[in-house]
# Entry
Amino acid sequence: MLRRWPAGIWAQSSAELAHMLQQKYAFSPEQVEEILVDPPVEGYMDIPREELILDIHAQNAIPFVVASVLTDPVPGAHWYSSGRMRDTKLLALAQRVKPGPSQAQSVISNYQCFQKGSYPNQRMIIKLKDGTPYQAETDCPRGHPGNMPDMQEQIKSFHHQAKGVLPEEKICRLTEAICTLEDCRDIAEISALLSPQNKK
# Structure
């Protein structure tokens, strides 16, 4: 299961492609004219023009997640704050994310693909306002069993995700405890680290 990005599984794959293209070609969100996601996934390409009502909607809306990674490449729960879900510039960029020319894939057909041990191929084309197109595709996005991040990358991601709710010292102790889970004599020791209120 993909878990690098705090988003729905199809939105995560799109976020990976957008991030990869931005890292490679160093364009800004303001330069983007249009983003095509191909093939699109039924029910995951829609986004309201004014605001997103629920964070679960935002996490599954491919346009919102793509716009989020292009404006803030360090993912986290802050992507789904009430302020960002009402950010007019962010939503305007999300409106430029559109379905590509291929027939939309159904959720059922994609899950059947997962059951067979594969992943749907996805392609993204980002067109800049000066006419420059950038393209990337993947059938094995980051977080897929065939393209897993290494331990240091996972630890870095965990520290970023946890820093909003746990103190740094506790995050470090928790990371060490998880990495040496086989040596844990009492799971209550790890449970205690998960509570921001617990001083131990």
In short: The longest helix spans residues 9-25. Strands lie at 32-38, 97-99, 122-128, 133-138. The helical segments are 9-25, 55-60, 62-71, 88-94, 107-115, 151-162, 168-179, 187-193. The first strand starts at residue 32 and ends at 38.
